[in-house]
Write a structure and sequence with these properties.
Blueprint: H1 15-21, E1 38-42, E2 49-51, E3 56-58, E4 68-73, E5 84-87, E6 95-100, E7 106-114, E8 116-117, E9 127-132, E10 135-139, E11 152-159, E12 164-173, E13 177-186, E14 201-211, E15 217-218, E16 232-236, E17 246-249, E18 271-274, E19 282-287, E20 292-300, E21 315-319, E22 322-328, H2 330-334, E23 341-349, E24 353-360, E25 367-368, E26 370-378, H3 385-397, E27 421-426, E28 431-438, E29 460-462, E30 484-486, E31 493-494, E32 508-510, E33 515-519, H4 522-525, E34 533-535, E35 541-543, H5 557-598, H6 606-619, H7 632-637
Parallel strand pairs: 14-16, 28-29, 29-30, 30-32, 31-33, 32-34, 33-35
Antiparallel strand pairs: 1-13, 2-3, 4-5, 4-8, 5-13, 6-12, 7-11, 7-13, 9-10, 9-12, 11-14, 14-26, 15-16, 17-18, 18-25, 19-24, 20-23, 20-26, 21-22, 21-24, 27-28
Helix pairs in contact: 5-6
The structure holds 2-acetamido-2-deoxy-beta-D-glucopyranose (6 copies).
Membrane topology: Single-pass membrane protein
Pfam family, one: Malectin_like
Organism: Hordeum vulgare subsp. vulgare (Domesticated barley)
């Protein structure tokens, strides 16, 4: 089985052009004159890879966070096999992602092949989960690497924000290892199964079988077109090992193939499995995850030579015992032989198997060309974008160690939130928000960015027991619902921002064991009375509330400015006072001289002299013509 050229050579430089022109696809069906958006990545590869001789282009590795490259083992369905992979050691964090940008809005088939690191000493089959756009759609379970059918995973997903994220979530057993990633655009209405279908669902391909040929095949091998997403079909010659059914095939052209929205290739219908006289019914059974909804697609075409008219083959379709379709007569329904018929049915499955039975009416045999089964997964809602950005800033600013990961979306998939982050679903906004940060005792050495306040839904912050430096950001006081703020046992310095007094919901404030200085804001000082728990101890330079020392020379900047201003005023006052005193003294001396001149007694007191001088001013203007300049001074003092 080989993959042929897909005509995506040279696509890379054209990505921008494609994303511009694809805006049209928003509501329209596939425009067959255009090529769908297609990206294939050979993980761990430094160079673009062409899988000669078929010339499918696999881009060199890009767009990932973390991980290492290695040589790959395990055969995959890609021929010839890709030689490298990327794997993600747990020490690099539990969440690792590929981000593929400039992806036009639309509907995509995302397919991943997995492989093992080619190291004979490494006997670890990794067990991990895979998500696309935050929705978990595949879990690799023990034994996957020895079952070809389980070496790949595929999902159909809508991309709405031009960036596609594919994340790998460690479960602690081995290092997730990825061979290849394919992002293949399909028709916006592909696999429209009913009312649940749409942006709110992700379809996981659970099974895709072409019957009768016995060989696995991609759409390309079956002469499909690119809008079909180059589906991968497992081949079956018989539906179950114990049954007596038979493969048949034809060279005839099959009508009604390659039609929108699913563009099924014609070759798929040129082979089939049919029942026999001994066993006219057909039945196929597969294991599934219980308590999920499944979308089942069945493909038929009348290709058996003996069946040429209506009523010669009539059968019911039962899924887990319930009649899904009654009295299927392919020729009656399509009008002709060699014409494709596609039926789909959505079923809720409570058990661990899906059993599809084609039960013919008396005297006829059942037939089936292909079977597809998809698990219907509700798509996760993302975390509000501003808060994701704020967490990324926090990650850098606090210097979060690699082991934290913190890639992808913080809250989804819900099975794998970021460690240290508590999430809550906001029903009104239909987004996840962050309501808690627990990064206590993690050896953090950075600073708290003021952007932390963009996490407006936080109720609790615990950064206790790290080596966080710098100041407590003023902006923390703007998180309205903050109830717990524990920054104890760090190396924070500077003063406690006044803004913390605005936190009306605050219940616990632990700032003990830092290097904080200055006065505890008055706005916080009264709170212990209101049953808010505080701890400010073990900050040698902090003062101002009972239990801490008295505020001495260590004053806030404002207080220092205030004091400096006070001193200046006092100084100016002193200067003026001295000047006045000196002038008054001059007046006294002059007064004495005047008195002497008038032969007044020397024994007059100063005040009397003053009064005399004042009276002199008001009542004896004729006196002391030179005293005019000084006359007001005694007024100032009186
Ligand atoms: C991968 O295989 C190539 C030979 O195919 C070899 O030269 C190279 O050293 C291998 N790389 C690693 C990381 O084992
Ligand atoms: C799938 O089945 C539903 C009803 O069961 C039908 O409305 C829909 O057209 C079918 N989809 C396709 C693509 O045939
Ligand atoms: C299955 O679909 C029904 C609606 O048809 C829905 O109510 C139910 O929640 C779905 N179950 C699961 C597990 O998604
Ligand atoms: C913060 O974490 C520390 C260390 O794990 C813990 O002792 C403390 O109780 C936590 N603070 C609060 C307010 O829960
Ligand atoms: C706080 O500590 C930093 C070094 O960690 C220093 O640069 C800064 O001047 C200190 N600020 C105060 C107010 O002590
Ligand atoms: C405050 O923190 C100190 C350690 O810094 C501790 O010894 C003390 O018990 C705490 N006080 C209260 C009231 O929790």
């Amino acid at each position: 089985m080989q993959k042929r050229s897909l005509g995506v050579v040279q696509l890379w430089p054209l990505l921008l052009a494609i994303s511009a022109s694809s805006a049209l696809f928003g509501v329209l069906a596939a425009d067959l004159t255009k090529e769908p958006f297609t990206i294939r990545i050979s993980c761990g590869s430094f160079d673009d890879v062409h899988t000669a001789p078929t010339n499918t282009l696999w881009y060199r590795d890009f767009g990932y966070t973390g991980g290492r490259f290695a040589n790959a083992t395990r055969p995959s369905f890609i021929v010839p096999p890709l030689k490298t992979l990327r794997y993600f050691p747990l020490s690099d964090g539990p969440e690792n992602c590929y981000y593929i940008n400039n992806v036009p809005h639309g509907h995509y088939q995302v397919r991943l092949f997995f492989a093992l690191v080619a190291d004979p000493n490494l006997d670890s089959e990794p067990i991990f989960d895979v998500s696309v756009e935050g929705t978990l759609f595949s879990s690799l379970l023990s034994g996957w690497s020895s079952d070809d059918e389980k070496t790949f995973a595929e999902a159909l997903v809508f991309v709405q924000d031009s960036s596609l994220s594919i994340c790998f979530h460690s479960t602690g057993h081995g290092d997730p290892s990825i061979l290849s990633i394919e992002v293949l655009q399909i028709d916006d209405n592909a696999y429209k199964f009913g009312s649940l279908w749409g942006m709110g669902t992700v379809l996981r391909t659970t099974k895709r079988l072409t019957c009768g040929s016995g060989k696995p095949a991609f759409d390309e091998d079956l002469n499909g077109i690119h809008w079909g997403g180059d589906r991968f079909w497992l081949g079956l010659k018989t539906l179950s090992s114990s049954s007596d059914d038979q493969p048949i095939s034809t060279e005839n052209v099959i009508a009604e193939t390659l039609l929108a929205p699913n563009f099924y290739p014609q070759s798929m219908y040129q082979s089939a499995i049919v029942g026999t006289d001994r066993q006219p019914a057909l039945s196929f059974e597969m294991d599934v995850t219980p308590n999920k909804n499944y979308s089942v697609w069945l493909h038929f075409a009348e290709i058996e030579s003996g069946i040429t008219a209506e009523d010669q083959r009539v059968f019911d379709v039962l899924i887990n015992g319930d009649t899904a379709f009654k009295d299927i007569d392919i020729i009656r329904m399509t009008g002709e032989r060699f014409t494709a018929l596609v039926l789909n049915k959505t079923v809720a499955v409570s058990g661990t198997t899906v059993k599809i039975t084609l039960q013919p009416v008396e005297g006829t045999h059942a037939i089936v060309s292909a079977i597809e089964v998809f698990e219907i997964i509700p798509a996760e809602m993302k975390t509000i974008a501003q808060e994701v950005t704020a967490l990324r800033t926090l990650k850098g600013s606090l210097g979060l160690p690699l082991r934290f990961g913190w890639n992808g979306d913080p809250c989804i998939p819900q099975q794998h939130p970021w460690s240290g982050v508590d999430c809550q679903f906001d029903d009104t906004k239909m987004h996840w928000v962050i309501d808690g940060l627990g990064l206590d005792n993690q050896g953090l050495r950075g600073v708290i960015p003021s952007d932390v306040s963009k996490l407006q839904h936080l109720q609790s912050i615990n950064f206790s027991g790290n080596s966080i430096k710098g100041n407590i950001p003023f902006s923390l006081g703007t998180i309205p619902g903050l109830r717990v703020l524990d920054l104890s046992f760090n190396e924070l310095n500077g003063s406690i921002p006044e803004s913390l007094g605005q936190l009306t919901s605050l219940q616990t404030l632990n700032l003990n064991g830092n290097d904080l200085s200055g006065r505890v804001p008055a706005s916080l000082g009264g709170r212990p009375l209101h049953r808010v728990r505080f701890n400010f101890t073990d900050n040698a330079r902090l003062c101002g509330i009972p239990g801490l020392r008295e505020c001495g020379p260590h004053l806030s900047v404002a207080a220092k400015i205030g004091m400096a201003f006070g001193v200046l005023v006092a100084f100016l006052f002193l200067v003026v006072f001295s000047a006045c005193w000196w002038k008054r003294r001059q007046n006294i001396i002059r007064g004495q001289k005047l008195a002497a001149a008038r032969e007044a007694p020397y024994a007059k007191s100063r005040t009397q002299f003053t009064r005399d001088v004042q009276m002199g001013k008001h009542h004896r203007p004729h006196e002391s013509p030179r005293g005019g300049n000084n006359e007001s001074s005694p007024h100032l003092l009186s």
